[in-house]
Amino acid sequence: MPASPDFDLLMMRRALDLAGLGTGYARPNPLVGCVITHEGRIIGEGWHRQYGGPHAEVNAVAAVSDPTLLRQSRAYVTLEPCAHHGKTPPCADLLIAHGIPEVVVCNLDPNPLVAGRGLEKLRAAGIQVETGVLEAEGRWLNRRFFTFQEKKRPYVVLKWAETADGYLAGPYFQPVAISGELARVAVHRWRSEEHGILIGTRTALHDNPHLNVREWPGPDPIRLVIDKNLSLPPTHHLFDGRQPTVVFTYRERATKDNLGFVRLSEAEDLFPQIFHNLYQRNVQSVLVEGGPTVLNSLLKDGLWDEIRILRSPRRLGGGVAAPSPGLCGLRQHTRLGDDELFVYVNDREQPNR
């Protein structure tokens, strides 16, 4: 007997929740969750926990204590099961081999290696397939993956903290502690969720940041630094070799250890070159923690997908002004202790939702 629409929604929401547990670890693969039910009861579930490890469908099938039930089961998968051999065998073949008769899919996979082939395999094997259940929620969860596949560039998140009177830093770029403790923890969580973290020369020079993850469990991002003339001191934390670091420059410099240098053309626009290089490196998302020069340049060119502004009640009375983009597309407004968080999305640049 087919499941009710409400039950399908409930199970797909569960699968999306499971998929989100792989954030930061599954990259550059998409986030995928899978729930398997039998007669209205969950008998197995799983998610893609780690890049190179078993996919969600594999983990969900392995969690079923009585495999004989699979031939009368219904599988909910947040992304079209793969149909090609990558680091693991095709998941479509796995579902077929276990005789699962019904599969519900949230999103189709835009990866040219899949792109409908997984569903074709399932249907050719006689499996009943439904698609588009909670499609918008699935695209938001995998917005990094969809942007990377469809726009051939990383998903770009601009982040800054500003005072109530609109400043990023003190006079002459003097670093100032603007955000409270909860906001700082949130920033470290964001760092763990994005593949790369980008800053410009001035931020690197004045802040001397580590750009790692300290106050949240998760992997460090790749450090990305714009240093056009290689003017940053080699003693700065960015060059300590503790995590992969890429410097974008107009000068020639040999790559060494965990530190790479990419020479860009002065005759071409800066950020399209950077994003093209990151696409080639398979870097799916970038958190931009740069100063006003970097932020305003990306805002001016519309090269952003999401903006996160942390607004503090603190006032400076003067200093380096925060960007004033006149944003629309507010997706979230919440409080983090004494600070306010505003999240905007660039609807003109988002994958179709």
How are the elements arranged and paired?
Layout: H1 5-20, E1 33-38, E2 41-47, H2 56-62, E3 74-79, H3 91-97, E4 102-107, H4 117-124, E5 128-131, H5 135-141, H6 143-151, E6 155-162, E7 167-169, H7 181-193, E8 196-199, H8 201-207, E9 222-226, E10 245-249, E11 259-263, H9 270-280, E12 285-288, H10 292-301, E13 306-311, E14 320-321, E15 330-336, E16 339-345
Parallel strand pairs: 3-4, 4-5, 6-12, 6-13, 8-9, 8-12, 9-10, 10-11
Antiparallel strand pairs: 1-2, 1-3, 7-14, 13-16, 15-16
Pfam family, one: dCMP_cyt_deam_1
Pathway: Cofactor biosynthesis; riboflavin biosynthesis; 5-amino-6-(D-ribitylamino)uracil from GTP: step 2/4; Cofactor biosynthesis; riboflavin biosynthesis; 5-amino-6-(D-ribitylamino)uracil from GTP: step 3/4
GO molecular function, one term: 5-amino-6-(5-phosphoribosylamino)uracil reductase activity
Briefly summarize what is shown:
The chain is of the alpha/beta class and 353 residues long.
Describe it for me?
- With 353 residues, the protein is an alpha/beta fold.
- The chain folds into 2 domains: 137 residues, Cytidine Deaminase, domain 2; 196 residues, Dihydrofolate Reductase, subunit A, CATH 3.40.430.
- Helices cover 27% and strands 24% of the residues.
- The protein is built from 10 helices and 16 strands.
- Strands 11-10-9-8-12-6-13-16-15 form a 9-stranded mixed beta sheet.
- A hairpin with a 2-residue loop joins strand 1 and strand 2.
- Helix 3 runs parallel beside helix 4.
- The protein is elongated.
- The mean pLDDT is 93.
